[in-house]
Amino acid sequence: MTRDAELPAVVDRYIAAVNARDWAAIAPCFTDDAEFWTLGVRTAHGSARIAKQLRESMGALPETYDEVVRVAVDGTIVFVEMVFRGRTTAGNAFEVNAADVIELTPDGSAITRVAAWFDSAQRPT
């Protein structure tokens, strides 16, 4: 396992697209049969559904940003620890500790699965 590794290119593109709210750029980061699991949210299946679910869930928060804190890579498994910051529609700032476990295709060109974890006690309200 490589700790403090660089983000694989496809994971970097995915996080950049989420931070930019570039919903059209998210789907190409995933395989057609990918799945995206988030604590407390129905699992999304397929690249288009993943992009749609992210757009819908983030739409309730007018301002968000994932800051990558630490990365570890073991073959096609990528662990990304981050701080998710933003503002609610009421203008309240929030900060949530989070971690994504991301699985890649064997060649590392696309994401096949994301398990997104966060500290639910810090969930924005």
How would you describe what is shown here?
- By secondary structure, the chain is of the alpha+beta class.
- Helix content is 23%, strand content 47%.
- The protein contains 3 helices and 7 strands.
- The chain has helices spanning 9-20, 23-26, 47-59, and strands at 2-3, 30-38, 41-45, 63-74, 77-87, 93-104, 111-118.
- Strands 1-4-5-6-7-2-3 form a 7-stranded mixed beta sheet, covered by helices on one side.
- A hairpin with a 6-residue loop joins strand 6 (93-104) and strand 7.
- The mean pLDDT is 91.
What is the chain-wise order of helices and strands?
A: EHHEEHEEEE
> How widely separated are the two ends?
36 Å
Number of strands: 7
The percent range for strand residues is over 45%
Cα-atom Rg, whole angstroms? 14 Å
Shape: globular
Spatially, the strands of the biggest sheet line up as 1-4-5-6-7-2-3
- The percentage helix is 10-25%
Poorly predicted residue ranges: none
- Rounded mean pLDDT score: 91
**Number of helices, where a helix is a run of at least 4 consecutive DSSP H or I residues:** 3
Structure classification: alpha+beta
Largest sheet: 7 strands, mixed
